[in-house]
Amino acid sequence: MFCYKCGKEARLVDGLCRECYVKEHSLITLETHYPVVICKYCDTYLYDVWRQFSYIEDIIDTILDKAAGKRRIRAVDDFGPPSYDPLQVRYKVIPEKETFVVECEVYGRDDPFSDVAITEDHVFVVEPKYTVCPRCSKKYGGYYEAIFQVRREGRPLTADEAQYFIDEVSSLSDAELEKNEMAFIAKVQTRKEGVDFQMGSLKFTKKLARTLLSRYGGSIGESHRLVGFDRQEGKERHRTTIVYRLSKFEPGQYVFYKGSLWKVANAVDKLSLETFDDAATIDFKKVEKEASEGQLEIVGSEFLRKGLIASFNDGAEVLALDTYETYELEAASVPKGLTQGDQVLFLIKDSRCHVVNP
Length: 358
Description:
- It contains six helices and 22 strands.
- By secondary structure, it is an alpha+beta fold.
- It has three domains: 27-131, no CATH class; 142-246, no CATH class; 253-356, CATH 2.40.50.140.
């Protein structure tokens, strides 16, 4: 059989010899010049949509993926057996003063039923065009949708606590930015009471509050303030303030809970209490209820006295180290693990003695 293109006698593919078939069929179509818009503040570029990138190769891969259409592109160092999908690609990037020249080889088949392998050579230029993406325009232009406040019930945050939550919120914001480009922090303000964050996304701010609540307990409050009127939409514009308030309970505090004296061991996901070998936990959903019903209350350290377990006899006897008086500790109030000679803190409440480990 003869090739209808060149007249050569050979095995034909669609009426063409292999050489003519390769000339007539292409794997992908590439432009010679690709201007690419890149944000000068963050690692994003515009190619249909704004995308994250780390290296110029990420942009080149996107260009090749788009050129391949529905087929996949696989970057290789050496070509393997040809296939229709994926196409194999290897390229070299040559940086120039303001552009990147890409020398590219594409290898594969143009048809899933063809046995003819095609190799194509392409050269194209990627030219960065720097601008400011919409997210950075809002971020650096002072735009924010919500105010997120971190407070502690009963007292201001310490400097260490404030810095801890600045780092925590920043870390959560950075992680969320991969999915939500508006999850940025526009501004951080350290105040006497705690920390205020101006947040780019109200949706993320609510998610942030729920995340901190699940990690550290506490409570969430929300309020809205009129800030203007949108003439285009004919609607009032409100700004939301979300307050995340840490629990008033902290490790090292002493509490009176259901008739016993306890030391707070942990106040993160649950309120964990201990006294010698005894332990108790309270879900934060129940803490407010227990406190409001008088079942859980903080005992100031100034109300606790130092003592010593002097003897055991169907209960125990506590020797006060300040007055050397003794107090009877009922058997029902003796915590597990308490032994004679142990140092304790004790409280006289409703004419009964209660002890806890120092």
